[in-house]
Amino acid sequence: MRTHSKNLSDTIVNILIYIFFIAFTLICIFPFYYLFINTISNNDLSSKGLINFIPKGIHFTNYLQVLKIRGLGQAAFITLSRTVIGTALTVFASAFLGFLFTKKEMWGRKFWYRFVIITMYFNAGIMPWYITMMNLKLTNNFLAYVLPSIISPFNIILVKTFIEGIPESLQEAAEIDGAGLYTIFFKIVMPLIKPILATITIFSAVGQWNSFTDTLFLVTDSKLFTLQFVLYKYLNEASSLAALIKNSQSGIAAANIANMQTATSVRMTVSMIVVIPILFVYPYFQRHFVKGVMIGAVKG
């Protein structure tokens, strides 16, 4: 009798857990779904908040209009370049420094490790940062997108902790066989730390892809504008234009323009374009993500 009662209670608990997580998943997915259906629905209905669950008047004009933005191709190339190059450099530097900080024979290991970590807690502020970047000739320079982000204290901590969980006997055996520092790093350590590398790749790639404040402060050359910055500018301009059209009495032509694009349709289309690439990349690294964070965060 007790066994039957226990099995029944376990089943009820499992059902409740499934219901909870299904509901939680739907809550997480719905904002993306809401954005998408509003970008492909009638712009006039969307601007009035009448599109909530089912798209109406389906069209893809919003995406076609956004893709016609002048300089969008160049901006996409700059963003893709900074994401790929910046992420690769950040991951390599984090992996190599994290590895070095585990080597007891490293000169001044504790000092340099603390020197790097302390930058997580102290920030000079925007003006000193801008003056430093200007003195380093990193204004209107593509290197401004990748150099400052190469050293990431948080990523170094994750890699260092992860490596400390690997048996030292592996490295010692390689040293006995005559392997040097770089051989051990590339042939022994790197293959074993793929989960944490995938984790910091996600962190770095998302940060690089979404960043536009460095463009706002450091770049005036339109050839170096990032995708997010161009879309941000267009968003502001489109919002102003939509408001102007709405309040004007210019006639039929203006009304047609307002029906084709509104501030709401532009805002949501821009948001989808920014999010879509990350949504495609993230699942590829998902299988390593949880394992990398858990092992890299807690030793042992």
UniProtKB/TrEMBL annotation:
SUPFAM superfamilies: MetI-like. Pfam families: BPD_transp_1. One of its GO terms (cellular component) is plasma membrane. Keywords: Cell membrane, Membrane, Transmembrane, Transmembrane helix, Transport. It is a multi-pass membrane protein. The keyword Transmembrane applies. GO terms for biological process: transmembrane transport. The keyword Transmembrane helix applies. This is L-arabinose transport system permease protein AraQ. It comes from Clostridium fungisolvens. The lineage of its organism: Bacteria, Bacillati, Bacillota, Clostridia, Eubacteriales.
